[in-house]
TrEMBL record:
Keyword presence, Nuclease: no
Domain of life: Bacteria
Keywords, comma-separated and alphabetical: Molybdenum
Biological process (GO), any one: molybdate ion transport
Organism: Aminobacter aganoensis
Keyword Hydrolase: no
Every Mop domain range: 2-67
Entry protein name: Molybdopterin-binding protein
InterPro entries: Mo/tungstate-bd_C_term_dom, Mop_domain, Transp-assoc_OB_typ1
Amino acid sequence: MKLSARNQIKGKIVEVTKGATTSHVRIDIGGAVITASITNEAVDELKLAVGKNAHAIIKASDVMVGVD
C-alpha cells in the first residue's frame, strides 16, 4: 500500500470501542496512544482487533498549537 500522506506511524491496536455508527480505535505507537474515529463498517472490513499491528495515517492541512 502506498499513500501520499507522509505521516504514517506504525503501532499496535490496544482498544476498539464500537458505538452506534462510529468506532474509536486506539493505537499505541511506542508509549503514546493515537485515537482514530472511523466507521464501524471500516473496522469490520479491515478486521481491526486488539493486538493487531496497524498504521495511524495522519493527513491534515493545518496543525494548530495552543498554550495556557
